[in-house]
């Protein structure tokens, strides 16, 4: 199947072609027609499967088409909103309503700022010829630039839960005109403790809407949450967690803990030209690895929750641009990392949950590229390897490393 067969509006199709995509990924092939029909989706898909385009393309199309038929249509708004519109702050700026009457019609809720920025980039790419506006809001940065953008009017809002609720409370955001709601990485949201925020948000958005729910894994609490949010959804499942690694060559090194540093340095020296992402379970560990590499003359960047948004973004940009070849990250900080040509993932230690291993190695081998995942396993981590193999239903190559 090609994108031409998906009935995508010309301005979006053109942007997709400019982006260099020829063939829709399986989730795009399945989800785009369903979203076009207006149905809800319960999607089980990981990042790396092309799920962002799977929801962004048909949402852009819906919004473009409804804007064409009802230009400047003001959505029905509750009484409270109309009063809010007349409120002005000390600088005389009005709150709650966009300058040109645009109302937010699509909300994408995502757990981390990195993901929010990444999704925002996708909307920039696919929506560049549509005239639709979007912005991303997330915590950890000043809200002024974000509220300025909102005041100018956006059609699509990409948000992390905390900042979204803050700005709603302050009257900067009204969701009464929402027609599309995407809950992205729902399992991660629950992991990160956002369930209460999601529950607070739901009464603030219109009941009549199209909802697209995505999760990489499907534990019981996710199923329960999806039931309370979705209306007669179509279930779409691609690349389930246990088959995610088909394009990734995986290898486990059994190595004593004190030897891990030496092994890492020798691997990196051998693979100098390649982009390598190293995972550490803790922030402290990530800094430690980065310092060790520095002493060995290998330039790297570490990203984790203690780094400022600016530092993280700069590190990510340098890594994406190939200026820095080695990045060390914690699991949460790595969530938004989407680097097409990432060749190697190294698990310096094993994560607690086997699913996290699959997420980690899914940073490489994306969109048809092949990748390599190397895992350093010390004696106390052996059991975790068994759990991972069980989850993936396959055995990995094992190498006994001796210094
Ligand atoms: P996602 O799962 O949305 O994070 O997408 C993973 C990567 O695949 C991103 O770098 C996208 O730009 C890329 N991608 C998405 N759809 C396609 C496609 N149809 N063809 C080639 N690359 C794609």
- What is the overall pLDDT average? 86
Q: Could you give the distance between the termini?
A: 51 Å
Structural class: alpha/beta
Q: Main sheet?
A: 7 strands, parallel
Instruction: Report the principal-axis shape.
Output: globular
- How many helices? The count is 16
Q: Give the assembly state of these chains.
A: single chain
Please bin the fraction of helical residues. Answer: 25-40%
Radius of gyration: 22 Å
Relative strand content: 15-25%
Bound molecules: adenosine monophosphate
Order of helices and strands: HHEHHEHEHEHEHHEHEEHEHEHEHEHEHE
Strands across the major sheet, in which order? 3-4-2-5-6-1-7
Q: In terms of per-residue confidence, which ranges show pLDDT below 50 for 5 or more consecutive residues?
A: 71-96
Strands, count: 14
Describe this structure in words.
The chain is an alpha/beta fold. The chain is built from 16 helices and 14 strands. The chain has helices at 10-18, 26-36, 51-69, 79-85, 113-126, 144-152, 161-169, 186-191, 195-201, 220-229, 260-270, 283-295, 309-320, 331-334, 354-361, 382-392, and strands at 41-44, 106-109, 134-137, 156-159, 180-183, 210-215, 234-237, 248-254, 276-279, 300-303, 326-329, 344-347, 371-377, 397-400. Strands 3-4-2-5-6-1-7 form a 7-stranded parallel beta sheet, sandwiched between helices. A 7-stranded parallel beta sheet has the order 10-11-9-12-13-8-14, sandwiched between helices. Helix 3 (51-69) crosses helix 5 (113-126). It is globular and about 70 Å long. The relative contact order is 0.12. The site of adenosine monophosphate has 16 residues, from helix 3.
